[in-house]
Specification:
The structure holds 2 protein chains of 2 kinds.
Chain A lengths: L1 H15 L2 H27 L4 E7 L14 E5 L4 H11 L3 E5 L9 E6 L5 H29 L7 H8 L4 E7 L5 E3 L4 H34 L2 H5 L4 H42 L2 H15 L9 H4 L5 H11 L3 H29 L7 H16 L1 H6 L4 H8 L4 H8 L6 H29 L9 H8 L2
Parallel strand pairs in A: 1-2, 1-3, 4-5
Antiparallel strand pairs in A: 3-4, 5-6
Chain B lengths: L1 E12 L2 E12 L3 E5 L6 H8 L7 E6 L2 E2 L8 E4 L11 H11 L4 H14 L15 H13 L5 E5 L7 H16 L3 E5 L3 H7 L2 E6 L2 E7 H7 L4 E7 L5 H4 L5 E8 L2 E7 L6 H8 L4 E7 L4 H19 L1
Parallel strand pairs in B: 3-8, 3-9, 6-7, 7-8
Antiparallel strand pairs in B: 1-2, 1-4, 4-5, 9-10, 11-13, 11-14, 12-13
Helix pairs in contact in B: 2-3, 2-4
The chains are: A alpha/beta, B alpha/beta.
């Protein structure tokens, strides 16, 4: 055990001290921050006027959508069918439809548009609706309390019962009147991001494991070391050590990216936001802790348009179930890496030089690449057959499952996928250990699949 | 007293027999030569001793008890295929390898400091391995092989890559290790160094031990009753003065001396040869031709190989 720690330490330190590690650690966050900041910047800059037509069957929101600097609302009285067919000709940016519901308080709306709806428009609409619905609930609650004076007022209870999540679905309308669902949701962004990250880390650090094994073979140090430790210990030490390098890099990236984004957006927000923002925040706080203070003046909502970009991200992130997301990410990241790293180690052990790895790389890169290629299908239909099978098959599940998770996956599927992945990890490690053990002592021998099969049975 | 013994060791690799019921015992404090042509099974045997691979059959004993995983701390192994991490510094690497052999950090550092001082290598400590010459790297490798002061040292072709000065330094160090009480297994093709260093040998050919024992005894067995003489002041034919069954192997001149190799019948003795020569020639030297390990090696291996061919 002591020796495996020595090995992990060596593998970790030699890599972390490399210049390339430093460079990647600095470049990564810059790149990621740019990816996150540019859309926000664009969102705050996008100030061309957009008109949104509103069909409100409930009648609750009449007059509640106030025009902002770049969003104008006008109300239609026509029915939704004709509005949709006239939409393209009308020149409106989007058509908001709030259907009548059985329950007295509506909680969803549909936003039709020709292209993807700008995230600030959508979130503005959602904010206004949420606020309106919450106000109505609060009012009803307070009325109840007035008539029923016996019960003590429980602030927490009231706040909880008032909290509302309004769904605004966006649907693309094309010229022919055809509709398709569009996906500007944060869940898609997060899912893709997590999937890409796992894909990238498995490739990057898996091949580092492979190169490390090949290096030990070409250096001829391997025999010196395995006369002191078991081949399995050396292999696992290397896999774990490199994995920890990956985790370190990942954590540094998260911290640095967060730092950069915070610094940059706070300067942006400082410039873009006017006094209203501060006032609004204060009002919200007041509303939170003082239920007697009835509905906030609507005027504060109009201030939102400006620093929408920043708010959108913060608000959207707030809607994500982070414990589940992070837990799942760490699990699929770690076990996906461990499973693939074992395969990479086996390849490294079987060959003499990196140029010989091609034929063995293929079967393990294909599932990974395929799961990336199929990503858009998973997003279109996160609970479909294709997405299900890809997220259960261990070689594709780390990427596929991470893409699906933000959309919500039944627990039994997650559990099945995790169990399969753990089994696959044990299986590949067992297999890799056998190939590795034999392969590292073979020099100058061209190895093929038949040979590997033989090694498995030694 | 035996330090190490192998009993009936067999190992097979996908249809090919690498070792076939090998029995070897190595006396404590000896330098034991493990000889054999390429592919005979030496490296497989050494890897089995190091527990890198497991034998299919047979048992191994160290110090009278069966070999255990922990015994790797009692063994130092310098493989034929050896190297170091090129990008790592010499000191760090030596520390790593020494700790893998079970030394504590402090102990490893203390001992490495001693050895680096002794071999005048202290200035290398912070250098990267790739900056060292091949000979220097070999020194580092040798050093980490003996750093944990194992009872059993195994050197596989230790002299390859060494220049004569470093080779003789290494030889002295191997002898010094033996004098400190270590037992050495020494695998090589270099028969001159076997002759110089080894007390015992085992010759492996085609997965089998074909010859083993103390070097002195083996040489005795392979004596051919041949003698080399040098003489002067005789113009006639040497053959005419020798008894009938005596045979001249070859004759030549060495400066002003006349030389000859003579094989005498097994029933006779060297004195009969001298008696025959003395009245006729001015004898300058007389010595038995002792077969070199090289000759014995070639003879045994070719004999065994032709046997196998005949059997087949």
């Amino acid at each position: 055990m002591n020796k495996i720690i020595l090995i992990i330490k060596r593998e970790y330190l030699t890599r972390v001290r490399k210049k390339s590690f430093m460079v990647m650690t600095i470049l990564g966050p810059l790149l990621m921050a740019a990816i996150m900041i540019v859309p926000i910047y664009m969102a705050t800059r996008g100030n061309e006027l957009k008109t949104v037509a509103v069909i409100d069957q409930t009648g609750i929101f009449f007059g509640k959508f106030r025009d902002t600097d770049n969003i104008k609302f006008h109300y239609l009285s026509s029915d939704i069918g004709s509005a949709k067919s006239n939409f393209v000709k009308s020149g409106d940016y989007a058509l908001l439809f709030i259907p009548k519901t059985e329950v007295s308080i509506p909680s969803n709306a549909v936003l039709y548009a020709e292209s993807n709806v700008a995230i600030n428009v959508k979130s503005y609409i959602r904010n206004v609706m949420t606020k309106q619905v919450e106000d109505m609930k609060l009012e009803a609650k307070l009325r109840d309390l007035q008539t029923d004076k016996k019960n003590p007022i429980n602030v927490e209870d009231i706040l909880r019962s008032v909290k509302t999540n309004v769904d605004v679905n966006t649907i693309k309308i094309t010229d022919g009147g055809k509709e398709e669902k569009s996906y500007t949701e944060i869940s898609m962004v997060l899912g893709m991001f997590a999937g890409i990250l796992i894909y990238f880390f498995i490739f990057m650090f898996g091949s580092q494991v492979m190169r490390g094994v090949i290096e030990e073979k070409t250096n001829r140090i391997i025999e010196v070391i395995i006369s002191s430790v078991k081949p399995f210990e050396l292999m696992m030490g290397k896999i774990v050590g490199v994995g920890m390098v990956g985790l370190t890099q990942f954590l540094l990236w998260v911290v640095l990216t967060f730092g950069i984004v915070t610094v940059v957006t706070s300067t942006f927000a400082g410039k873009a936001a006017d006094k209203h923002t501060a006032g609004q925040a204060m009002m919200q706080n007041v509303a939170k802790y003082n239920p007697d203070n009835l509905p906030l003046p609507d005027s504060t909502a109009s201030a939102k348009g400006k620093d929408e970009g920043v708010n959108v991200v913060i608000e959207a992130l707030g809607s994500v179930n982070f414990p589940v997301m992070i837990g799942a990410f760490l699990f699929f990241f770690l076990f996906g890496y461990l499973m693939y790293a074992a395969l990479f180690a086996a390849i490294g052990g079987a060959v003499d030089s990196e140029s010989d790895t091609q034929q063995f790389m293929l079967p393990i890169t294909v599932p990974l690449i395929l799961s990336m290629v199929m990503a858009q299908f998973f997003i279109q239909d996160p609970s479909g057959q294709v997405a299900f099978w890809f997220s259960v098959f261990p070689l594709t599940s780390p990427v596929a499952m991470m893409i699906r998770i933000p959309f919500g996956v039944p627990y039994w599927q997650v559990a099945l996928s995790m169990a399969m992945l753990i089994l696959a990890f044990l299986g590949t490690t067992w297999m890799a250990a056998k190939i590795y053990r034999t392969g590292i002592l073979m020099y100058g021998k061209k190895v093929n699949y038949r040979e590997l099969w033989k090694w498995l049975r030694y | 007293m035996e330090l190490f013994s192998a009993v009936n060791i067999s190992k097979q690799f996908s249809g090919h027999k690498a070792l076939d019921k090998v029995n070897i015992s190595i006396p404590e404090g000896s330098i034991f030569g493990l000889l054999g042509p390429n592919g005979a099974g030496k490296t497989t045997f050494i890897r089995i001793i190091n527990q890198i691979i497991a034998p299919d059959e047979g048992q191994l004993f160290l110090n009278g008890r069966e070999l255990k995983p922990n015994d790797i701390y009692n063994i130092g192994y310098l493989p034929e295929e050896r190297g170091l991490y090129k990008k790592m510094s010499v000191g760090e690497q030596a520390m790593y390898l020494a700790q893998l052999k079970g030394l504590s950090k402090q102990e490893a550092h203390k001992r490495l400091m001693y050895w680096f001082g002794k071999f005048e290598m202290k200035s290398w400590w912070n250098k990267k391995v790739e900056e060292l010459s091949k000979g220097m790297q070999q020194k580092v490798q040798f050093l980490v092989t003996i750093i944990h002061e194992p009872k059993l040292l195994i050197f596989d072709e230790p002299f390859s890559g060494f220049d004569p000065i470093n080779a003789s330094m290494l030889k002295d160090e191997i002898i010094a290790q033996k004098e400190k009480g270590a037992t050495v297994i020494f695998s090589t093709h270099n028969m001159a160094s076997v002759e110089e260093l080894c007390d015992h040998i085992a010759l492996i050919n085609n997965a089998k031990v074909v010859l083993d024992g103390p070097v002195r005894d083996i040489k005795k067995t392979y004596r051919t009753n041949s003698f080399e003489i040098s003489y002067k002041d005789f113009q006639g034919s040497l053959e005419s003065v020798l008894p009938p069954a005596f045979q001249i192997i070859r004759e030549w001149n060495d400066h002003d001396l006349r030389m000859a190799g003579i094989k005498i019948p097994a029933a006779s003795n060297p004195n009969q040869l001298i008696n025959a020569l003395l009245p006729n020639v001015m004898l300058h030297s007389f010595s038995e031709i002792i077969p070199s390990m090289n000759d014995i090696f070639i003879r045994v291996v070719t004999e065994k190989n032709s046997e196998t061919i005949l059997q087949a």
